[in-house]
Amino acid sequence: MINRKQQSARFAWMLAILSLAVASASPASQPAPRSNGLAQTPPVGWSSWNNFGDDINEQIVIETIDAMIANGMRDAGYVFVNLDDGWQRYKGARRDHPLEVDPKKFPRGISYLADYAHQRGMKLGIYSGPGQTTCAGYTGSEGHEAEDARMFASWGVDHLKYDSCCSHREAPKEELQKIFRTMSNALMAQKRGIVLHACHCGWGDIWEWAAGLGVNHWRIGQDISDDFNYPGNREQYYFDVLDQLDRGVGLEKYAGPGHWNDYDMLIVGLDGKSKQLVGTGASNTEYRTHFSLWAMVSSPMLVGADVRKLDPYSLQTLTNKEIVALNQDPAGNVAHKVRDDGDLEVFAKELADGSHAVLLLNRGAATATMTFSPRADLQAPMDRYSIRDLWKHRDLGTYDIPFTTEVQSHEARVFRIRQLATSANGRSVSDAAEQESAR
Ligand code: GLA
């Protein structure tokens, strides 16, 4: 007979042996996944690059913040105000120049802008890269990652776009991982939480490993151009809206709270007039479709247009809170393409409250009639469901058959559908309630 004390000693031994076995089963070469706990929903805000290029300054940033508050963007969720390339003082290699803010463009420094943003419930982002120079030729962070991370944190920065400029295309993954791990570790050593964007053109299958290094979002493709569907790649490089969308198909599983596929910055409102970006612009319908798609696939949504001068239609597009909510849904699901009938495609995702977001996309040249069936397309046994149109802001009623509607050329119709509970006798609860109240 063994007593209680002996019994618990045996139990402790068994536990110890078991945990040793579990520990030795995980490969020692795999570094433990890191997470800064940030970006539980995709970052949403503004970035300077798509319209201004490197022609940025303090005045533009202040006016941008003020405009985002006045025009309702901040309250619709656009809180990041991100400086892209061009804030730095020097052009040329880091070995020849320190990394400093350009005192002519930003006379009061970056921390002044960070404070200005924070006081107004917003966040400030900054830009650098792992090379000697950045993509626009300014001094990069190579060899100075810890020092730069400290400097960004001391300025009160909330987001870093760390841009490899599509370099290292053929480099072994270990080399790429080292680049982003070095900056991620440097940022995580700071008290201040800083969201990390690894901008790397989607090479080296970055989606497979970036989250494990603590990266919060990574570009899945080359730069977007101001086009909805340009034949081929403009200048044999740029991706248009549909290129980015197609690039993301199959990558959905890599994204989730804290780590997102980045389809690049929004082109809504650029209208082919950007000082920086190539492209001839898109129609209002196409920009709206682009915005709806980015919300569905949970991409970061950083507006690239000059928000001080947004036309009313673009502003109405960007501040549709029901669409922004699909992007910011706490479940963090990414829409999958659930049906592909050539030019007609259906994307869907489940939301935190159990409802589903459904997007009907018509890529074709003519208006089309599209049908979706919750049973067939969502594989969700919904016999009876309600539909809300998120662009018309209207409840369309209750359905127990597939839903059919018209979708214009290049339009995306977006709906939120909710299952209506069915009682044990097969009658829907709402039927029963209606009959009850009719008595
Ligand atoms: C690269 C990036 C762009 C922008 C520029 C800045 O091209 O993909 O988004 O940051 O660099 O030079």
Q: How would the global form be characterised?
A: globular
Q: CATH superfamily membership of the largest domain, which one?
A: Aldolase class I
Query: Helix count?
Result: 13
Structural class, judged by helices and strands?
A: alpha/beta
The CATH architecture of the largest domain is Alpha-Beta Barrel
Strand line-up across the major sheet: 7-6-5-4-3-2-1-8
Strand content: 15-25%
How many separate domains make up the residues?
A: 2
Catalogue the unreliable spans.
1-29, 423-439
Characterization of this structure:
- The chain has 439 residues and is an alpha/beta fold.
- It folds into two domains: 44-327, Aldolase class I (TIM Barrel); 336-419, Golgi alpha-mannosidase II (Immunoglobulin-like, Sandwich), CATH 2.60.40.
- Helix content is 30%, strand content 18%.
- It has 13 helices and 16 strands.
- An eight-stranded parallel sheet has the order 7-6-5-4-3-2-1-8.
- The longest helix has 22 residues, at 4-25.
- The model is unreliable at 1-29 and 423-439 (pLDDT under 50).
- The protein binds alpha-D-galactopyranose.
- Alpha-D-galactopyranose binds at residues 49, 84-85, 134-136, 163, 165, 199, 223.
